Amino acid sequence: MNDIMDLHTHTIASGHAYNTLYEMAKSASEKGLALFGSTDHAPKMPGTCHEFYFINFKVIPRKLYGINILMGAELNIIDYKGRVDLRRGLLERLDYGIASIHEPCYKNGTVAQNTSAYVGAMENPLIHIIGHPDDSRFPVDYDTLAAAAAENHTLLEVNASSLHPNSVRGNAREKYVTLLERCKHYKTNIILNSDAHVEADVGNHKRAWDLIEEVNFPKELIVNDSIDKLLPFIPKLEAYL
Fold first, then answer.
1. DSSP character for 222?
2. 2 exposed, middle or buried (CB, 10 Å; 0-12, 13-18, 19+)?
3. What would the DSSP string read from start to end of 36-75?
4. How many alpha carbons lie under 13 Å from residue 189 in its C-beta half-sphere?
5. Residue 98 contacts by C-beta under 8 Å, 6 or more apart in sequence?
6. What span, in angstroms and rounded, lies between the C-alpha atoms of 56 and 106?
7. What is the block-wise mean pLDDT of the chain (241 residues), using blocks of 10 residues?
8. End-to-end alpha-carbon separation of the chain, Å?
9. Cβ atoms of residues 82 and 108 within 8 Å
C-alpha cells in the first residue's frame, strides 16, 4: 500500500522536538510524501508555544519542497467532556485538529470517564483525528470508541511512536489489536501517523504497518494511500490542492 502522508508531527515550537517546520517538510519531501501536516502541541502542554502561534498560519506557504502542507495542532483533551485547550476561534483557524490525552494535561478517570472524554472530543466538528488512543495509563472502552468515531466521521490514529519499545504509553500493541478489531466491526477509518519529533522520523510508519499486516486490517479503511480518501475527513485540504 502506497503511504503518501504524515499528519502528526512536531517542530521546535512544541518545546521537546528538535527540527524546524522547513526541515520537517523537506524531510517529508525527500521521503516521497505528497502531504505533510504539522501539529505542534497546544498551550496546556508544558514547554510548548503560546496560543498566538496558531493565529498566523496564513503566512506559511502551503506547498514546500513540492509537497502539500497542512497546519494543525495536537490539542490536549482536558476533561471528561472532551473539551480541548484552544478556544473555538483559534480552532477555526486550523486546517485540522488532532485531539489527544496527555498525562500533564488530563486527570486520569475511570474507563467510562476516559471514553467519554474521547467521545466528547469527536463530537466537536473542528476535531478530525483522535491521537494515540493507546495509552495503558488511560483505559478506554474500545468498542464505544470505534463506534463513536464511525458515527462522528472522525479518524482514529495508529501512532507509530507508541509502538516503539521505549514508548512511555505502554502496551500500545495490545491496545491496538483490540481497537483495530472493533474498527473492522464498525468500518471505522484510521490513519497511520509518525508523531515525529525529529526529522528522521517523518513518514516512519513501519511499526504501525507491521501491526496492520499482522491483524489483516482492511486497506480500504486506511486513508494513508489517497488524498481523495482523506478529503471527506479534512475538508480544508481541498483549498490547497
1. B
2. exposed
3. EEEEEEPTTSTT---GGGGG-GGGS-SEETTEEEEEEEEE
4. 20
5. 7, 8, 39, 72, 73, 74, 75, 127, 128, 129, 130, 131, 157
6. 27
7. 96 98 98 98 98 97 97 98 98 98 96 98 98 96 98 98 92 96 98 98 98 98 98 95 83
8. 22
9. no
Cell digits of residue 18: 528538535
Residue type, 179: L
Instruction: Classify 171 as helix, strand or coil.
Output: coil
If we measure between CA atoms, which residue out of 129, 153, 135, 133 comes closest to residue 143? 133
Cβ atoms of 21 and 59 within 8 Å: the answer is no
What's the pTM value of the predicted model, to 2 decimals? 0.97
For the chain, how long is the longest CA-to-CA vector?
A: 46
Q: How far apart are CA 120 and CA 149, in angstroms?
A: 11
Euclidean distance between CA atoms 10 and 132, whole angstroms: 14
Q: CA angle at residue 158 from 105 to 14, to 5 degrees?
A: 40
Helical spans, DSSP H, in the chain: 21-30, 88-91, 111-122, 142-152, 172-186, 206-215, 227-230
Q: What is the C-alpha to C-alpha distance for residues 59 and 219, in angstroms, rounded to an integer?
A: 36
CA distance 61 to 88: 24
- All residues at 6 or more sequence positions from 136 whose CB lies less than 8 Å from its CB, including other chains: 169, 170, 171, 172, 175
Total length of the chain = 241
The answer to whether residues 55 and 114 touch, using CB atoms and an 8 Å cutoff, is no
Spatial separation of the C-alpha atoms in residues 211 and 217, rounded to whole Å: 9
